[in-house]
Design goal:
heterodimer; A: 308 residues; mainly alpha; two-stranded antiparallel sheet; 69% helix; 3% strand; B: 418 residues; D-Maltodextrin-Binding Protein, domain 2; 2 domains; 10 strands; globular
């Protein structure tokens, strides 16, 4: 292997290899990101000039009687959205992965079927679920009635108490394939001799899973958690598709992504406010960055990885 | 050498041809977001104008509705925009005028053919400069299923009491959903509910201008009353209406499963195509029989002139023609449900459109009260009206609370008379 430490200077060919990617990434990702962060410290005057505003936009976002309830509401909803994914999507993903490990044609079919929603367009997912849950033409009311639970049906997507949970569960349904496939690959990567040794030692299947397999997939579970975190705090499309930019009723399904969209691009008669939009985007960036750093320093350094 | 000569010849020919062409005909380009109307403009409207004005050639050049504002701004900044510009109502166009992109048309002779309400969407706040020729408006009202009304021997309600009695009768019969509307998309609650039945309470323009002048507040009786009336609709809406969206209610009605549909004239052509039963329309009901009726006759689309147009005289000629009854009749018949704003008397072929249009003679027109000036600040009044109107119907907000929240939001930034 090439020892880079002996050469003080970075070898030229490495620069050549890195340059295209670094250039494109800087130009299309880092620069806009920095510019958007810069924009969050400005405000626009009547005649469309940018004026320095210091932390004014942030103060407004956190304390203004109009912005603050929206921001804190969206943040709280976003944490609910994330918790539901962590509590429902990832454990079920692990369960499905554990069930899929093994041989047989049925498992292959199920693996494909369970992963299928993940590759479908969000717009299709939104449309299908709205149709399923529709109080007018949905199959949900009929199915509940068929098992004698018709009185339990509610227009879940339309009620402020249930809209966010319903949307979260639909998102879980769509993305369950990701933790499932990641954990599945981690599980099939566990050498058979470890399991066999445990069987010889008289370990029950339950104990084999929790004492041997689970600690070995724990690093993957960490990756799944951080991926869920990033995806959830960037989420926007599913809620926009089903509930619109106003994320109703009464902002009950409003998350950071929809708040950003509304602030930046405007909505109906509301003209977009690019500087406040950039402030919301900056907060999203900070939250995601904080989450990822916490993962890197608090979790990844402590969790034990085993060389198999 | 031969090649060079040939190229020179071709160039000379092109130059000569171009010169002749430009002398003979001036080409005007219309920027628009109405790409649905392309054939109507190029097959019906423009040929009629060109026949009367042989020296002018007009091209209708629409872009996609969602991209229009962005595309237009870029073209205006780059100086490549067309001579005539389709104008959205209120602030979007006002901004273009203030930046000097739209020409002042106050002195256009035909402007006298339009009422102040018609011009209100394309006028400066002080009312002195008009910058677009109003083209069309949409009128709010209620569609009803004539078959359902006949079967139940119901007559068209004129008063609010009759309206509620009709709803009761339909609900009791059970074959139809009394009112096809949902609150999931929220804008229906505000636009087809609040702005549809409200003008009768706040006396149309009187109430709207009083709000603008700060002499009336959303906490006043007419507004609270409007929300109370909306809240009373809830039992007559389809079950699970909180999750019912706009296309759902449209289908519910055109499939013949609902009896009444609160909406506006823009649905005419679609409904006439989809519904297999006879359609009727009625005005928003009033308190007592004989009370004056106020309708929401909302200004929606106009045509302005690019201030930097190379052919201002010809562009004005076209705009002048647009103020004529001839244009009004052409446009209104091509697009039933979009009504010309001119005062000229025109006749429409579509019976439903005619019915809507006849209301202008028997009732007073106003526009949606959140569109002029009041939706400039934060929180945005229009968005807030969507939110509270839906919440009032959902029963999660009282009408009084809705009124206080709306007024508090407006008070935060709107200080009339200061």
């Amino acid at each position: 292997m090439l020892d880079l430490r002996r050469n003080k200077r970075l070898p030229f060919f490495i620069v050549v290899f890195i340059a295209p990617g670094a250039l494109i990434y800087s130009l299309f990702m880092i620069l806009p990101l920095l510019d958007s962060l810069r924009l969050s410290f400005f405000t626009t005057s009547q005649d469309n000039r940018e004026l320095w505003n210091g932390l004014g936009n942030y103060a407004r976002l956190f304390s203004d009687s109009d912005w603050a309830p929206r921001f804190w509401g969206a943040l709280r909803n976003n944490f609910v959205f994330f918790s539901i994914h962590m509590l429902v999507q990832n454990p079920i993903g692990l369960l499905l992965a554990a069930l899929l490990v093994g041989k047989g044609r049925a498992r292959g079919v199920y693996r494909t079927l369970l992963f299928l929603p993940t590759v479908l367009s969000v717009v299709i997912i939104g449309f299908i679920w709205q149709l399923i849950l529709s109080p007018l033409w949905g199959v949900a009311p009929g199915m509940l009635k068929a098992v004698g639970l018709g009185s339990l049906f509610r227009p879940w997507l339309g009620l402020s108490q249930t809209a966010l949970i319903t949307v979260s569960l639909i998102s879980v349904w769509q993305f369950i394939g990701i933790p499932m496939i990641l954990l599945y690959t981690a599980l099939i990567g566990i050498p058979d001799d470890l399991v066999e040794a445990a069987v010889v030692d008289g370990c029950s299947p339950w104990n084999i899973f929790w004492r041997i397999k689970f600690p070995l997939v724990l690093p993957t579970l960490g990756v799944v958690a951080v991926l869920t975190f990033v995806a959830n705090f960037n989420a926007f499309d599913l809620i926009y598709t089903m509930k619109g930019a106003l994320a109703g009723p009464d902002f009950s399904s409003d998350i950071m992504g929809t708040l950003f969209y509304r602030s930046f691009f405007g909505q109906q008669l509301q003209l977009g406010n690019p500087t406040m939009g950039a402030t919301v985007a900056a907060m999203m960036f900070l939250i995601i960055a904080a989450g990822v750093l916490a993962y890197l320093f608090l979790w990844q350094r402590r969790v034990q990885s085993y060389q198999l | 050498m031969k090649k060079l000569v040939a190229i020179a010849l071709v160039l000379a020919f092109l130059a000569g041809y171009g010169a002749v062409f430009s002398q003979a005909k001036v080409t005007l380009t219309i920027e628009s977001w109405r790409n649905d109307d392309l054939s109507i403009w190029s097959d019906q409207i423009i040929p009629a104008f060109e026949k009367a004005n042989p020296g002018i050639h007009v091209v209708f050049q629409p872009s996609a509705p969602a991209e229009f504002n962005g595309v237009l701004n870029t073209k205006l900044e780059g100086g490549t925009a067309g001579d005539l510009i389709t104008a959205r109502p209120f602030d979007a166009s006002l901004q273009l005028y203030q930046k000097g992109y739209l020409a002042d048309l106050s002195s256009l002779p035909g402007m006298g053919n339009f009422s102040p309400v018609a011009k209100s969407a394309w006028i400066t706040d002080d009312g002195k400069h008009v910058f677009a020729v109003p083209m069309a408006s949409v009128i709010h009202g209620f569609f009803y299923n004539k078959a359902a009304f006949d079967a139940l021997k119901l007559s068209v309600p004129q008063t609010k009491a009759q309206f509620m009695a009709v709803l009761d009768a339909i609900k009791k019969d059970g074959r139809w959903v009394p009112l096809a509307m949902g609150t999931s998309d929220m804008w229906e609650a505000a636009t087809m509910g609040f702005q549809n039945i409200g003008p009768n309470n706040w006396k149309g323009e009187d109430g709207r201008t009083a709000l603008l002048k700060g002499k009336a507040k959303f906490t006043d009786a007419p507004y609270v009353k409007t929300w109370k009336e909306l809240a009373a609709w809830a039992p007559y809406l389809p079950s699970g209406y909180q999750a019912v969206k706009y296309p759902d209610s449209q289908q519910l009605f055109t499939l013949g499963k609902a009896a009444i549909y609160p909406t506006g004239s823009w649905e005419i052509s679609q409904f006439e195509k989809d519904a297999s039963f006879k359609l009727g329309v009625f005005k928003p009901p009033v308190d007592k029989a004989g009370d004056p009726v106020y309708i929401s006759d909302h200004t929606d689309i106009a045509l302005g002139m690019n201030a930097k147009s190379a052919h201002p005289a010809e562009a004005k000629k076209f705009l002048q023609w647009m103020t004529s009854p001839e244009f009004a009749a052409l446009y209104a018949n091509a697009l039933p449900g979009f009504f010309p704003l001119s005062n000229a008397k025109i006749s429409l072929k579509d019976p439903l459109a005619n019915e809507f249009l006849s209301w202008r003679g028997t009732s007073k027109s106003t526009i949606r009260n959140s569109y002029q000036i009041l939706s400039r600040g934060e929180p945005n009044l229009e968005n807030e009206l969507w939110r509270v109107s839906a919440a009032v119907i959902n029963g999660t907000l009282t009408p009084e609370k809705a009124a206080t929240e709306i007024q508090a939001g407006l008070d935060k930034w709107y200080k009339p008379g200061k």
